[in-house]
């Protein structure tokens, strides 16, 4: 929809801004835009830290229409007067709850304040914590709320249980489950690659046959 919208308007200035919490997600979004828009002539660039800003500034000065940015680097470039958000027609906040968790919410609000009043804002979030809800109420005008919530989250044969434990007690709770419950095999998800490996190593040290699967 963003590509269709931008094809109908002027070129050579930033008109769409997609905010991402991580450089990996920004690159993924940028790649998808390039694939979908390769016949449109629209130009997309990524703006994130950890790399030189020189190629990014060059892309901005060349008149890229779509900016896929992480909040910190975008604010840096705004401070250098290399980015003017008044021409932005549509803003997407991608993984809004993750940006909140990573401490970017104040940066996001600073960016939102620089946008023109007639812009469209779309927000995507896996969860809707209070801070994100307040942000939506403040900056989204008459928003349509689209919630994807299937009637059944898992197949009927799967029993679901939830345990609230402190972080330092998580491994002890897992060990108790593996010992007490009749579990012949298990698939355990961890948030990070390092966490996956550490958990597998700790299980092996405690006599379990375990292997870590990560990229």
Give the distance, in angstroms, between the N- and C-terminal Cα atoms.
32 Å
Largest sheet: 5 strands, parallel
Q: Helicity level, as a percent range? A: 25-40%
Average pLDDT: 91
H/E element order: HEHEHEHEHHEHHH
Which spans of ≥5 residues are poorly predicted at pLDDT below 50? none
Percentage of residues in strands: 5-15%
- Overall body shape: elongated
What's the tally of helices?
9
Query: What strand line-up does the widest sheet have?
Result: 2-3-1-4-5
Radius of gyration computed on alpha carbons: 22 Å
User: Pairing-aware structural class of the strands and helices?
Assistant: alpha/beta
Say how many strands there are.
5
Structural account:
The two termini are 32 Å apart. The chain is 40% helix and 9% strand. Strands 2-3-1-4-5 form a 5-stranded parallel beta sheet, sandwiched between helices. Helix 4 (71-79) crosses helix 6 (105-112). It is elongated and about 65 Å long. The longest helix has 14 residues, at 23-36. The chain contains 9 helices and 5 strands, in the order H-E-H-E-H-E-H-E-H-H-E-H-H-H. Helix 3 (54-61) links the parallel strand 2 (44-47) and strand 3 (66-69). With 215 residues, the chain is of the alpha/beta class.
Brief overview, please?
This protein is an alpha/beta fold and 215 residues long. Helices cover 40% and strands 9% of the residues. It starts with a helix and ends in a 10-residue tail after the last helix.
């Amino acid at each position: 929809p963003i590509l269709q919208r931008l094809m109908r308007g002027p070129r050579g200035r930033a008109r769409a801004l997609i905010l991402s919490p991580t450089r990996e997600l920004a690159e993924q979004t940028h790649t998808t835009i390039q694939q979908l828009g390769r016949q449109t002539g629209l130009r997309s660039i990524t703006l994130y830290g950890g790399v030189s800003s020189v190629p990014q500034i060059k892309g901005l000065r060349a008149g890229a229409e779509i900016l896929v940015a992480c909040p910190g680097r975008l604010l840096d470039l705004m401070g250098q007067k290399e980015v003017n958000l008044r021409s932005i027609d549509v803003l997407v906040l991608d993984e809004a709850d993750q940006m909140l968790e990573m401490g970017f919410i104040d940066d996001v609000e600073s960016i939102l304040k620089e946008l023109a009043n007639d812009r469209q804002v779309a927000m995507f979030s896996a969860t809707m914590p209070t801070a994100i809800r307040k942000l939506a109420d403040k900056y989204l005008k008459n928003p349509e709320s689209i919630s994807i919530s299937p009637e059944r989250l898992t197949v009927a044969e799967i029993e679901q249980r939830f345990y609230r434990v402190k972080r330092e007690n998580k491994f002890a709770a897992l060990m108790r489950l593996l010992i007490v419950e009749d579990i012949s095999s298990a698939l355990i998800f961890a948030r990070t690659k390092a966490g996956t490996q550490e958990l597998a190593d700790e299980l092996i040290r405690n006599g379990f046959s375990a292997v870590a699967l990560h990229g």
